[in-house]
TrEMBL record:
Protein name, per record: Crp/Fnr family transcriptional regulator
Keyword list, A-Z: Activator, DNA-binding, Transcription, Transcription regulation
Alphabetized InterPro entries for the sequence: cNMP-bd_dom, cNMP-bd_dom_sf, Env_Response_Regulators, HTH_CRP, RmlC-like_jellyroll, Tscrpt_reg_HTH_Crp-type_CS, WH-like_DNA-bd_sf, WH_DNA-bd_sf
Domain named Cyclic nucleotide-binding: residues: 15-118
Recorded superkingdom: Bacteria
CDD domains from the UniProt entry: CAP_ED, HTH_CRP
Keyword RNA-binding: no
């Protein structure tokens, strides 16, 4: 990969979008491109925490497993996003698994090198803090959903959250940009696949969600908001 190719890819990452060519050059020198096939792992929970990754293309699922092997999905990440966010604040091991869903091209940067870059460019550090702040707010919202809402409402709120993070608008509807199974939706909020299936069937009957010919969910965002907030 040429330096110009890498520079253009880094410019597509929201965190780096406003950096000058000189600032991007400092990142190019420490960046490496890696391509991962579907169903392969970028890293596994407990592996030594050594690199931070930025998604050029593809889909990556971040999830944790407990002692019994039960899966809890933290997020489904796509183009332009970075992971793990905790890489700059924790030492030791990766806190979750990162599994590739759709073939992914990732830009990998060693954490030690990236930390030195942050020291040299404080404005980049400020941007990173903003990203972390957004993640903290998201986690607070998820906790409130668990405490204040029943399962039916939690599933609706999950779908609404996905319209913000993993969807594109198509007329009055939002189409998810990642294939998600009922099992994966259940693992995002800690409920059963059967409960999710029943709720989704209800929402389909009400015309609030559908699935297109390619298997992607179509979501009536305004309809779901009225279902839960009015």
């Amino acid at each position: 990969m040429t330096n110009d190719w890498m520079k253009e890819r880094l410019k597509n990452v929201p965190l780096f979008r406003e950096l000058s060519d000189h600032e991007l050059e400092s990142l190019v020198s420490i960046s490496h491109v890696r391509v991962y096939k579907p169903r392969t792992f970028v890293f596994m929970q407990g592996d030594p925490l050594e690199r931070v990754y930025f998604i050029h293309s593809g889909t990556v699922k971040i999830y944790k497993t407990d002692m019994s092997g039960k899966e809890q999905i933290v997020s489904i990440l796509q183009t332009g996003e970075m992971f793990p966010h905790t890489g700059f604040f924790l030492k030791g091991t990766y806190p979750a698994h990162a599994e590739v869903i759709d073939e992914a091209t990732l830009i990998a940067i060693p954490i030690a090198d990236f930390e030195q870059t942050l020291i040299c460019y404080p404005e980049l550090c400020i941007k990173l803090f903003r990203v972390m702040g957004e993640k903290i707010v998201d986690l607070q919202n998820r906790l409130e959903e668990q405490i204040l809402h029943n399962t039916y409402e939690q599933i609706i709120m999950l779908l609404l959250r996905l319209t913000k993070t993993n969807a594109v608008r198509q007329g009055k509807l939002y189409r998810l940009t990642a294939h998600v199974t009922n099992r994966e939706l259940a693992n995002m909020i800690g409920t059963s696949r059967e409960t999710v299936s029943r709720t989704l069937s209800q929402l389909k009957r009400k015309g609030l969600i559908d699935i297109n010919e390619d298997g992607f969910y179509l979501i009536d965002k305004e309809g779901l908001e009225k279902e839960i907030f009015f």
